[in-house]
Amino acid sequence: MDNQEHIQKLHDEHRKEWLSAKPEARVIRFYETDKPYGCFSNFAKYPILLKGKEWATSEHYFQAQKFAGTGHEEEIRLASTPMIAARMGRERNRPLRPDWEECKVQVMTEALIAKVEQHPVIKSILLSTGDCTLVEHTSNDAYWGDGGNGQGGNMLGKLLMELREGLKREAITVGS
Q1: What is the pTM of this model?
Q2: Element (H, E) at 29
Q3: Residue 123 class from Cβ within 10 Å (0-12 exposed, 13-18 middle, 19+ buried)?
Q4: CA-to-CA distance for 175 and 56, rounded, in angstroms?
Q5: Nearest alpha carbon to residue 153 among 162, 161, 145
Q6: Is the CA virtual torsion 133, 138, 139, 142 positive or negative?
């Protein structure tokens, strides 16, 4: 079974469960790439094309943009795994671009849009989540994720929900 079929099967199995839940309980937590909704993870192996280059994962793109325009950007783009790209991007012996804090949400948004638009299966799964709250559930990150205890910022989940709403509006406009 190829990756897209596997993701679709996991999604279909999990979808029945959350559809039967009360609206306030409709929270979709994702993190591990081999679990339902794992395709939303930046570590999921869905390559994206951005800035005229192919990036193995959205994590590769995001981490590399911390060093845009330097040799470090290309080094990270070529990392063999998203975990290695993430580690490289977090090394503080590399010269972090000075505007990183101001632009990191925009960079993540670019990566997510590319991933969803370039992979119809992810777009379909994202739209199928309806009005569910999307949460990157991890104790490893309290900014992009929920911090593992629900107290984190969940920025990745929030950006995915914003993207989903934009796709819904776009579908309504096209259908009108």
Answers
A1: 0.85
A2: strand 27-30
A3: middle
A4: 34
A5: 145
A6: negative
